[in-house]
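Mods, move this if it's the wrong board.
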Amino acid sequence: MKMKELEARTGIGREAIRFYIREGLLPEPVKPKKNVAIYSEAHVARIRVIKKLQDERFLPLSEIREIIRSYDANEPLAPKFRGMEFQLAARLGADALTPISVAALIDSTDLSRQDIDEMADVGLIEVDRSQNEPFLSGQDARLARLWAALMAAGFNRAAGFTPHDLEHYHRAAGQIAQEEVDGFFEKIPGSRSIQEAAKMAEEGLAIVDEIYTLLHARSVLEAIARRNADTAESEESSESENVTV
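Not the wrong board. Structure tokens:
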């Protein structure tokens, strides 16, 4: 992609992009011709990392540069496993999913603006309003499409379901993730590199996801059985009372 598209994709201007390149925060673009520079998805992902570290952690550029340098050099983990989340995100493909405008997503699905707003209210997705029109990251767009699939399966407003019904999943996922990360950081050998730790986390996530899927399905079946048993017991009790009367 050219500079104009990179600006549109990231929401920052060309002067800032050139500054990041000069400071070693971004790799040099490919230059097939003297006055032509081609940027890649790696530039988009790296700029998002920089913005995230600045906006959410308020880190200075000097510390951001050190995080990126350690990451690129495949050095052992820095204190507090600094920068590992970006390596893991890349392994999980979170940064590879193409962002999409909210308008385009609504046009291509049965989603409404209300669905998007409610998903954002619950915290399931985050709407990027830094550009001319609202955008969703590729990962958040995938979540929104899954809600559309749930609606198509019958879990829709007509049946009384809204995105707020997903709130307990979001809450539970956050709680489980915090416990997982605390245990991981406490037990993993500090001598591992960022890449080694991220690979371990990637493989562990895939296995744990399958374990959770099985446990979830089993728990749902057990909950249905208990509910049916309680209903049957209630009906039998009611019939017995009617006979006695």
